[in-house]
Amino acid sequence: MFSKVLIANRGEIAVRIIRACQELGISTVAVYSEADRESLHVQLADESVCIGPPASRESYLSVPRVISAAEITQADAIHPGYGFLSEKSGFAEVCEASGIVFIGPPAEAIRVMGDKSEAKRTMIAAGVPVVPGSDGVLESLEEAEATAERVGYPVILKARDGGGGKGMRVVTRAEDLEKQFQIAQAEAEAAFGSGAMYMERYLVKPRHVEVQLAADKHGNVIHLMERDCSVQRRHQKLVEEAPAPGLDESIRQRMGEVACAGARGIGYHSVGTMEFLYEDGDFFFMEMNTRLQVEHPVTEMITGVDLVKLQIRIAAGEELGLSQDDIVARGHSIECRVNAESPYHNFRPSPGTIQALHIPGGPGIRFDSHVYSGYTISPHYDSMIGKLISYGGSRDEAISRMLRALAETRIEGVDTTIAYHREVLAHPDFQAGKVDTKFIERMQSGNGSAKGAGKGEQPQA
Question: Less CB within 10 Å around the terminal CB: N or C of the chain?
């Protein structure tokens, strides 16, 4: 086992990793930017190193500075958390070259799954169903037109190097393809430095269902059930739950088996998540997140497995110590991402100082966060304050406990999404489990009162 781990991240995930390391008896090193000098992860770690100014590219995204901090403190492993450097294959390679263990998958697995067209080809070879579309990057408008004709409208154009909804356009008619292709290319070029595009059939009312995976360096691969992440806006998840409500048991089993096959196909080890779009009994590979997910707590709640500890043990060379038969889902769990945003002003960020804070408690309630009374939320980073998680013996109980916890939570000094989450969970469609990636869109259009979602959103991925 490692003696010292450097956490190359900030916020709630850095705190989560530090706590896991403490329970494993591992010393921790926090890195921080000048804006995060008073952050909780800095206070909780055994050591801390300032790695630069507030701008992420000069601190949390600076590979030389992170590696230097690890070398100076003699850390023998680096945990990247999620975001920042977590899915940068080059960073994993630098760690290896520096004699530091990267707590994550092999660099090649990150590279392959980070290239959407190559990931699709690799998953097809592994027997994973994919959404019908282009075989790879579209080389021309003419190829895009031919592909759309073969697949059938509506189609969705996606940037090869994209994420977070950038470089994506839905096209419902052939006469609109040329214009939307050009717009998507320009947006992708501006956001990612590449206008490479591919195309898929656009699913009208899909659910976003993902499978949690764990694989060790000894060839053992298991899944830890699935999560439903369909409640999202602008392709950003708002509410996640496990297991996925109303999913047929045969689909659940097949999805888990396919996800494991995909992981084996790329020689994966570490924890990771295979994401699918599910509609009318069919499911299709969307992407693989080769890291810990934000929503990992709901899986922990229903399986009793600490995914962060498991990830660290795998990186240290240990076997999983679990078989597929050991994974049994009990009860139901829901997570709400609490952000410092103004939901009724199109989710405008609300940085500032938290004047007062009350965290809810009681049976089945967990709050993963890095904030405290007097903490200043910086405008430089993600606006997430924390993750409120509920657990119940049934989905109804998990919902009622979440509504109680949301009502108890008090965060003063900044606007938050708490009231918005209460609207979502109280909505009849959510309570009935009738959610898909258009759920928020339906709410905004009049079938609910979610006034903050904005016009014309197309959440799908």
Answer: N
Q: What is the dihedral angle through the alpha carbons of 74, 78, 84, 89, rounded to the nearest 10 degrees? A: 110
Q: What angle do CA 206, 208, 210 make, to 5 degrees?
A: 145
**Residue 290, token pair as written in the block:** 């080769």
With 0-12 / 13-18 / 19 or more C-beta atoms within 10 angstroms meaning exposed / middle / buried, residue 193 is: exposed
Domain 4-103 has CATH 3.40.50.20: yes
Reply yes or no on whether the pLDDT at 181 is more than 80. yes
Give the C-alpha separation, 399 to 404, whole Å.
9
> To 10 degrees, the CA torsion angle through 382, 385, 386, 387?
-80
Q: Is the pLDDT of residue 398 over 60?
A: yes
**Residue-wise pLDDT tens digits, 145-172:** 999 999 999 999 999 887 667 789 999 9
Query: Which residue type, as a one-letter code, is found at position 74?
Result: Q
Each domain of the chain, given as residue ranges in start order, spans 4-103, 132-201, 207-447
Burial-class residue 400 by CB neighbours within 10 Å (0-12, 13-18, 19+). Answer: middle
**pLDDT > 90? residue 236:** no
Any residues with CB less than 8 A from the CB of 269 and at least 6 apart, and which?
A: 105, 106, 215, 216, 217, 314
Where residue 259 falls among pLDDT bands split at 50, 70, 90?
A: very high
Q: What amino acid positions are annotated as catalytic residues?
A: 291
Calpha distance 22→324 (Å, rounded):
28
DSSP state of 338: E
- CB of 443 within 8 A of CB of 427? yes
DSSP string, 214-276: EE-TTS-EEEEEEEEEEEEETTEEEEEEESPTT--HHHHHHHHHHHHHHHHHTT--EEEEEEE
pLDDT tens figures, 43-92: 999 999 999 999 999 999 999 999 999 999 999 999 999 999 999 999 99
Q: Do domains 4-103 and 207-447 have the same CATH topology?
A: no
How is domain 207-447 classified at the architecture level of CATH?
Answer: 2-Layer Sandwich (3.30)
Residue-level pLDDT at 164: 64
| Strands of 13-70, DSSP E | 27-33, 47-52
pLDDT over 70 at 254, yes or no: yes
Q: Which residues pair with 29 in a beta bridge?
A: 6, 47
State the fold for domain 132-201. Answer: Dna Ligase; domain 1 (3.30.1490)
Q: How far apart are CA 188 and CA 161, in angstroms?
A: 8
